[in-house]
Amino acid sequence: MALTEFELVDRFLRRHDSGRNDVILGIGDDAALLRPRAGHELAVATDTLVVDVHFPAHTSPADLGHRALAVNLSDLAAMGAEPAWATLALTIPEAQADWVRGFAVGLFALASRHRVELIGGDTTRGPLTVTVTVHGWVAENKALRRSGAHPGDRVYVSGTLGDAALALSILKEAGEMPAAHATFLRERFFRPQPRVDLGRFLCGRASSAIDLSDGLAADLTHIIEASGVGAEIDPETLPLSPAMRSLADPNRARTLALTGGDDYELCFTIAESAAHELAGWEREDECPLTRIGRIVAKPGLRLIDATGAELKLPTTGYRHF
Questions:
Q1: How far apart are CA 315 and CA 86, in angstroms?
Q2: How far from 22 is each of 93, 119, 154, 320, CA to CA, in Å?
Q3: Do both 116 and 223 map to the same domain?
Q4: Residue 134 or 30, more confident
């Protein structure tokens, strides 16, 4: 059953269960009215997902709803921000109730987990495209940035690398994933988990941070270029999942870990003198942190093995154009 724009919003996208008290006026007027938080800065991020560019056409609506919000929350995580509000611009070929209901279920399940309130947006007809803008709070002058890395800092990543790229390659090549790893790999691509709590923990501790959306090599390069430094990475330390070790040979695994996009883990740098504070994060219910290299004065990103030899760095990575 096709819906009108107002039916779509009223039935599926108008929610008031976030528990927030800083939304004066949300969905239903020409603009939202919000209450600023004293002593904080507002972090804002936007991502657009286009069918057959950023996700396969067969992606379930619930997975797409989750993913559309998750990739934006990952940007807030990289800034150390606490999520607050979101807007949604949804372009769909037809406003079918079952599809929109599924999308809303995926979106709001993640929104509830991070106390995000949907405060407005737009709906229109066209090729399936989802744009989400998120807003979050970070204490004044405490936001994590890409530009703070210094020679001598250690380089860390959260979680494991390359899983989403491996999942996508298997879907494109074979259509189905091996049963033993199917659930894990599908979750890693379709339902990434933004490291919001980790980002907030790193405020005041890390010297720089970025979320891994285009691949470790590409995104770490953004840090070192913004900071005017270089980085040396030991390829043997790259954290790989059991699925990656089982399904990819060592060379392919290393390439995917370095260049595969869509991991939405955090890469960050931290001074050697402050690295001991990361022990406070190492709890059983949280994702692991792995030291993969160091920041150096010489510009550029290099792979250096345990013997000190420099290895060829793969040049591929996600390109938007």
A1: 35
A2: 34, 11, 38, 35
A3: no
A4: 134
Same domain, 12 and 130: yes
Same domain, 94 and 125: yes
Name which of 241, 266, 276 is nearest 256 in CA terms.
241
Domain identity same for 174 and 276 = yes
Other CB atoms closer than 10 Å to residue 125's CB: what's the count?
10
- Per-residue model confidence as pLDDT tens digits over 54-84: 999 999 999 999 999 999 999 999 999 999 9
CA-nearest of 317, 314, 318 to 303 is: 314
Is residue 144 one of the residues assigned to a domain?
no
Please report, for the domain that includes residue 17, its CATH number: 3.30.1330.10
Q: Is residue 269 within 8 Å of residue 173, measured between CB atoms?
A: no
117 and 171 belong to one structural domain: no
Report the residue count for the chain.
321
Segment 242-269 shows an average pLDDT of: 96
Q: At how many degrees (to 10) do helices 182-190 and 61-79 cross?
A: 60
Q: What is the CATH number of the domain that holds 227?
A: 3.90.650.10
- The answer as to whether 74 is a domain residue is yes
The answer to whether residue 316 is domain-embedded is no
Query: For position 321, what pLDDT does the model report?
Result: 46
Residue 259 carries which side chain, given as an amino acid letter?
A: T
| Paired sense of beta strands 154-158 and 266-270, if any | antiparallel
- 55 burial level (CB within 10 Å; 0-12, 13-18, 19+): buried
User: Mapping DSSP to helix (H, G, I), strand (E, B) and coil, where does residue 309 land?
Assistant: coil
Question: 284-291 long-range CB contacts below 8 Å, 24 or more apart?
Answer: 286/197, 286/198, 287/158, 287/159, 287/193, 287/195, 287/198, 288/158, 288/159, 288/239, 289/156, 289/157, 289/158, 290/156, 290/157, 290/158, 290/237, 290/238, 290/239, 291/154, 291/155, 291/156, 291/237
| Residue position matching structure tokens 């379930």 | 60
Kindly report the pTM of this predicted structure.
Answer: 0.93
Domain that holds residue 289: 154-311
